[in-house]
Design brief:
The chain has 213 residues and is an all-alpha fold. The chain has one domain (3-191). The protein is 65% helix and 0% strand. It is globular, with a radius of gyration of 17 Å.
Amino acid sequence: MNFLAHLYVSTLDEDFLTGSFIADSVKGRAIEALPVAAQQGVVVHRLLDGYTDSHIAFREAGERIKPDLGRWSGVVTDILFDHFLALRWGDFSTIRLTSFANRCYQILLQRIEWLPLQSRQILPYIIKDDWLTNYSNLNFLRRVFNGMHQRTSLKSTMPVAVDSLLDNYQELSDCFDRLFPDAITYVRKEIVKLEPVPVIDYSHQIFISILKS
């Protein structure tokens, strides 16, 4: 799961959503300086990462593209699943993706002073190029993967990621369909365990699977 999926499964608590956005950039005890709801967003983001990484559908997707991507297959799968979510956004939300994205950008800009440096540096580019909306666009994905390739000091296979996606499109889409409802269920169960429980409002979400008790 990448930015779009993590923001989608967040509650409508604005600090919680921000915590989810910055989770990969918060290091060590820096989390303790964040508002409580933002700390919770970080925690749930990391729990969801662990859950998805171990989910059989995620592992199958990674294995599907591993011949092309090698060690980068997991990172690429995270982003490809955001592609499927953006492409089929109307199946999962009652509001337009552009409206959701703009709301997220506004929330994050309002809190930019307490974002970690890495998040502060990348946010303007995310907004300028409208990442959350453009994950559905294959040309945009090529730019994302090429940019990641150029920034890494290691030899990367990411420039072929979109070609691998196209070669395995239906199979990867099926893996997303199996994983995402389970991920939503998992996050909802984890959120209600938090103390204090953050503001919970899933009114924009269309859940296409029956929640398990």
